[in-house]
Amino acid sequence: MSSILIKNGFIATMSKDKAVYPRGSLYIEDERIISVGKKIDVPRSPEYVIDAEHKVVLPGFVNVHAHLQQYFRGVYELIGDFYKVNLPLEMYRRPDDMRWLGQSSCAELIYGGCTTTTIIYTYPDGFARAVEQAGNRVILGADIEEVDLEKLRSGVYEYLPEKGEAAFRRAVDLYRKWHGKAGGRIVTIIAPKAADLARPETYLRCKEFADEKGLRVTTHLSQSMREVKQVKRLYGKTPPEHLHDLGVLNERLTGAHCTYIMEEDTELIRRSGMGILHCRAVTNPLTEWMDLGIPVGLGTDDYFHDMLQLLRQNIDASKIRRRLARDVTRIPRGLTFYELLELATRKGAEVMGIDDEVGSLEPGKKADVIAVDMLNPYLTPTKNPLTSVVLYGSSSDIDTVIVDGRILKREGRLTTIELKEALLKGQERVNEIIDRFFEDYPDQKKRWEKRRFE
């Protein structure tokens, strides 16, 4: 039986009662939290003792929507076009790329305190193997889309049922092989990509399988104007209306982005119980969704999985929306720092339906814990440690990460991944992927070469 005592820390449990212990302790046995508070009983001598003096102790971040697209960093930012660069690049990844890219991805998530992450990826089996070794927790989905991505670059939608069939079988195989594995740290989700990229019959098939196996469903929803126009052209409806009429829009569905939903769509989503996975869109009415009672969590999405930076982006976005409000009677309220931490922890767990296990530091829950070292000039002195973590903290300040009672990062160093090797081997694979892409698309290579030093 393994045990960990964390003592003398500023513990913010992020529980519904908002319990905070400015100088508290937390005791873990095996994968569960046994006790937390100002003073706790420790039944036996712990195997590990972590002195959290000058540290903020929090539940691990729950990152509700992410893709393994950080491999395109340094390219997409310069010549970024979702349909001409992002989607085509996905075709150049191979299952065996995950041997090293999976480790580097897990390293990024653990390093930044994302103890639980929802990952949607084309070839998730290799990533699952990396997670099994690395020790983090994931909700894993195989992307199900069925369009010709080459033709989509030119705005032409050609649906390929055989591609959809192969993607669906991949999702089923993922469930059979990995659901509940790695000590329960890996669970699966069904992930039809978007209403313009998967046919109605595919959505219905996904829902049927999810209902049969007790799984949740996630999809991109109204993420682009191209999606909205295509769904309107095909079905005469908005994407939320389309999924509602299919019977897919319900409390077991989560929709990512929702950047182009209408007011009527918002009401439809509210009534359905669907959760929204909010990423970086400045225009999204985040506080309005929250005040309507729509479940909302935060996701890093694609290229940079840093939850602390995402919190700050949402602060800036909230200020921008307030400044741009034209109707003085409907100025959106701002976000508090504590609300942002809730969205990154307990609220994220709630929207994914896993709040009975993670998202807060409470007895009986999984021991997914992070500690932020405050003893640096960016964070100390401060009168409010939580505010300072949100405004000024970085991933390098997270010096301890625990998942399932296992220490994955200690004193700033990863314990389950050989970081240098994973990063350098990952870089080799990325170079190969990008070189193959540039060989087939010399026009994109010219654009990249022109802009990389601008």
Largest sheet: 9 strands, mixed
Give the averaged pLDDT, no decimals.
94
Distance between the termini: 57 Å
pLDDT < 50 stretches: none
What is the helix fraction of residues, given as a range? Answer: 25-40%
Output the structural class: alpha/beta
Number of helices: 17
Strand content: 15-25%
Q: How many individual β-strands?
A: 17
Account of the protein in words:
- This protein is an alpha/beta fold.
- Helices cover 40% and strands 22% of the residues.
- It is built from 17 helices and 17 strands.
- The strands form three sheets. Strands 1, 2, 3, 4, 5, 14, 15, 16 and 17 form a nine-stranded mixed β-sheet that branches. It has a four-stranded parallel β-sheet with strand order 6-7-8-9. Strands 10-11-12-13 form a four-stranded parallel β-sheet.
- Helix 12 crosses helix 13.
- The protein starts with a strand and ends with a helix.
- The mean pLDDT is 94.
Summarize the structure in short.
With 454 residues, the chain is of the alpha/beta class.
Keywords summarizing the entry:
globular, 9-stranded mixed β-sheet, alpha/beta, 454 residues, single chain
